[in-house]
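In this section we walk through a basic example: taking a raw amino acid sequence and producing a predicted 3D structure, encoded as discrete structure tokens. The instruction is simple. Fold the sequence below.
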Amino acid sequence: MLEQRAETFAGLAATRLTSGATTMIVVHEIGPRIAWFGRRESFLYWDADGRHRRGTWHLRGGHRLWVARPGADESEETYAPDDAACHVAREPGRLVVTAPPDAARIQKSLAVTVRGEAWIITHSLRNTGDMLWAGGAWGLTCSRPDPATHYEVPLDGGPAGWDVLTVVIPRRWGGDHTARVVDPQIQFTESAILVRPDGNEGKRMVSAPRGTLVMRDPQRGCFTKSAPYELGAAYPCGTNVAFYLAPRAFMVELETMSPMRTLYPGQALEHVETWTAT
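The resulting token sequence is shown next.
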């Protein structure tokens, strides 16, 4: 049973969703954006002080739907502010939050349902214009690590034992962001990438057949999110998941990407993530 209640979060109009022992807060005065998710404490980072900005864009934190463009995982469209008020539809067992079309006439929406212990997050990009648009959906979750928090990207689940493991290391992006090639925060095993933030900036993009990222924390429990992987599809830089380690370990971004699509006028693409908190 999914319970819904209107409230405010950080001074913004929001909806609190509760199912069993797990709570999610979706902000819709701006966004759409998931601001809080967990049981006793949130797994998510929220930029309460508003210190992280790029021009008119404000990080805020939580979880949001970005766009990836063909040939580039980040572009100016990625950092377009999502500060407009959204339309909210509270349906039985389902919340749908829809933003107005942006400058490229792409309309973003986020729908939340619950299936057992799993929270289903359906992201949508709709072309409301009269011209073609090409790109992909990018589900980005800002998590808040504590000193004992660690992360995993499972690498099993491929269709054959001789699959190539694709790992992309962005050396520089967004002006002054950098990542080391040899990074002691990131270790490989035969079945997973293990990540323990140490306060240095880093980023990896990975082709992971399970499309899963895991956050483990002794106090808050385990947060897992995953998105289906489409074998042979065109993903940004050939990868379907990514993680970003922020300086001073104030957050770790957990990212999933959809395949690139060309949307004709009126068409939409969907990107579905499944979240659990245990």
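Looking at the output, two observations stand out. The mean pLDDT is 92. The first strand starts at residue 3 and ends at 9. In the next section we compare this with other chains.
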